[in-house]
Amino acid sequence: MTVIERPRLAEVGVSVPRKDGREKLSGRAQYVGDMEVAGMLHGKVLRSPVAHARIKSIDTSAAFEMDGVVSVLTGADLTDIEPYYGHAIKDRPIIAIERVRFAGEPVAAVAAVDEATAEAALRAIEVEYEELPVLGTIDDALAQDALELHTRRPKVGLFHGLGELGEKRGNVCYQHTIAAGDLEQVRTEAQITVEGNYTFPAVYQYAMETHGAIAHYHGDSITLWANCQHPFLVRAEIADLFGLEVGSVRIIVPFLGGGFGSKSYTKMEPLTVALARKAGRPVRITNRVDESMVTTRRHGMRCFMRTLARADGTLLGREVHFWLDTGAYADNGPRVTATAADSAAGPYRFEAAEIQGYCVYCNTPPSGSYRAFGATHLQWIGESQVEEVARRAGVDPLELRRRCLCVPGETVRPDGTGKPLDADLVGDVEQAAAAVGWEEPRRPWVGRGVSVGLLAAGAHPVSRASVRLSADGSVDVYVGTTELGQGPRTVMAQIAAEQLGTSSERVSVHGADTRFTPYDRSTGASRSTTIAGMAVKRAADAVAARLRETAGEVWDVEPGLVDLVGGRAVFAGEELTFPDVIAKRFGFRGGEIIEGGEVRPTGGDTGSYAEGPYFWEVCVAGAEVEVDPDTGVVEVLRTSTIADVGRAINPQLVERQDEGATLQGIGNALFEEMLLVDGVVTNDNLLEYRIPRISDLPGGMKSIIVENEDGPGPYGAKGCGEGAFAAVPAAIVCALADAGVPMNELPLTPERVWRRILELTKERADD
Amino acid sequence: MDLTLTVNGRELRAEVEPHELLLDFLRDRMGLTGAKRSCDVQVCGTCTVLVDGGPVSACSYLAADAEGREVLTIEGFAQTPEFERFEEAFLRHAALQCGYCTPGFLLTLKSLRDAGELGSEDELRHGLDGNLCRCTGYRAILEAARELAA
């Protein structure tokens, strides 16, 4: 374990209470659904009941005649703009144009004086569909004679970020390959081969708050209040769609009721703007849960994986082919595919690897980002194969990891590109194992497992922030990071306070308003503390420099000799409060100090995907499970997660991130699954789609914080909160295998597990 | 139809539609937006308010059924001296993140506490099983609840 001498910090490393706590606890916190704009109408969306069809006709006349209906929008209203969007691939129309590609696709939208009127008007719209064959699964979409879902030439979106698009082949929307070493050679050397086919379910992020937006179209400008994670990327897409400059689009982000990736990139905003444009008045659209479930979800996947090893378990090679169901439109599918490919090999020293990832269009609802995407898809498969290699080699699975895991400085990607390993994975996994009682005796049907992986994190490293010190000594931080529960308003306040030598109680951090808030690429990929936090630190440092400069002038000393402590400038027994310093600077009690800070790609680094990631997020967990062989019910007894964060700015918030990720991981592993029949989601409500409840909390849940100060963020910090999600399902699968039930399909429903136990019992009897 | 009820200690009369939901009445007519809409099927608990002291899902409760009853929303609860203990417990344990489910949890906890059903671990887990939180992983909420039970 690394031992680090730390300078003592006043604000950083302290679990100060959430800055937004009282506002949220008292019900005062405003979310987009709580907001009203003068003259606002209510929008409702008519969605296709079928997964694939040509629209023969839409008759909106009866709806339009209804009292209280202001306007009705269809694809025919969008002939004056280029109505296709998508940050990766511009393949999605704002509203269906002549064809629907998934059940739930918007076909018409009504703006009316209230929701009930709008809803009633939807029922008066008549749509005639000519149904087309439904490509409801990856296999359907890849079949030789499958219809192509997209025949327009693919146009790269504004934030593709993955290089040039290759020639689209059939329904493969994007392909990502990583290949290195001589796999043929490794195959001849290997004495242990573990291989199998695996399936991973489509799941729903289930942020408690659904997607919503209020749009006001003013002709030459647009104002949007939206619960979006990436306001600046949405701004660019909206400007592009409606033919405006980015400065003419203003996006205001209130509190978000959770995101987890579901509110990343552009979702309901284009349709809301288009409806407001037609209505000539502000319009709010708020999804119901069933509508949000077809707005975005996590990719379902099938995968073939093979791991090759020597007789003693030494890992030699890995071959992975996976297919992700991205639904009818690409959304973030290409990035999910690339990130999944990055996680497929795992952080092991392989001599050869070949990874092929395919992102496939289907007649299913679009899939996008969900916490730890890609890594969650692949880690449980790779780690269950490592577990099986260890079993066949007769080696303790923990010992095998000690032997084969990459060490800091080693290349992570098998092809040698990208950032080398920046974390102590062996140390991490040892702690995770110890926390679930690795060495303790096991009862029958109880198993323990660990899992180790990495997630390419940070996205594109561009963030700006500004810090304003007012004449009363209060501080405002303007940073585009979205507060969706993870706590950036608290963490950014701590960082600014630390650098300024004041208390975080004196600091306010505001939600993004793109008219005033400096640019920040996005809130995702665990980047806020690391990248936006560094921008805040630099901005605060610049304000601190101005304070020292003025105090230095007053006392006629070098600015560098002035200390900032407790909201005061201090030198040799002299002191000035911040308001005093500002009064000295401007000659009266007014004025303020405003400075900016930025993070951008440097030193020839273009921030491209191949050079990235900005840091590797550690995905390490342990689990202990018990399975009831008579019912197949799996109970998670204990979990451990490692928050290898470099430096915890607010340890309590770090723990909450991993505890939340643990429960989401348990849901994804044990019971969450969107059921699709012919492309139609059949369990699109909370009665039939279950998310974890308080009674699903494991008896023991330990979040361990590791602080090796090896991150690129402020004080050596690096992001967290996603890694545990990838690691927990994998640890559960490994633990279940350790209990004697290896599985190749998630979720681990009692029926699946019970059938597998029967199968294994039969196989063992036959042997 | 005419409705007479007490909301956060204040008696009021209103004309409501027979099918109007209590959640819409509170949010749209009273501007009390602390109760949130989410699942619409009485499962998630984000719309929890107390009617005559007991928790109900306002998304599935008719405003008309509140006739003659006392409704307490988070806005009302937050004005009472009792609220401070709840607030401090939740802040101390960081038992909230996005905050969307939080008012529902607080009101459910208040009713459990008032009914003397906050004693055992089983009571706690059972009592809070109708409030869903996607952010925190529940452990911190449980700890805050234990503190309130003590």
Largest sheet of chain A: 7 strands, mixed
The CATH homologous superfamily of the largest domain in chain B corresponds to Beta-grasp domain
What is the total domain count of chain B? 2
Q: For this structure, what is the CATH homologous superfamily of the largest domain in chain A?
A: Aldehyde oxidase/xanthine dehydrogenase, molybdopterin binding domain
Mean pLDDT of chain A: 95
CATH architecture of the largest domain in chain B: Roll
Number of helices of chain A: 18
CATH topology label of the largest domain in chain A? Aldehyde Oxidoreductase, domain 4
Helix content of chain B: 25-40%
Briefly note the structural class of the backbone of chain B: alpha+beta
What's the assembly state of these chains?
Answer: heterodimer
Strand order of the largest sheet of chain A: 3-7-1-14-11-12-13
Beta percentage of chain B is: 15-25%
The first-level CATH class of the largest domain in chain B is given as: Alpha Beta
Helix proportion of chain A: 25-40%
Low-confidence stretches of chain B: none
Number of strand segments of chain A: 30
Largest sheet of chain B: 5 strands, mixed
Query: How many domains of chain A?
Result: 3
Strand order of the largest sheet of chain B: 2-1-5-3-4
**Total strands of chain B:** 5
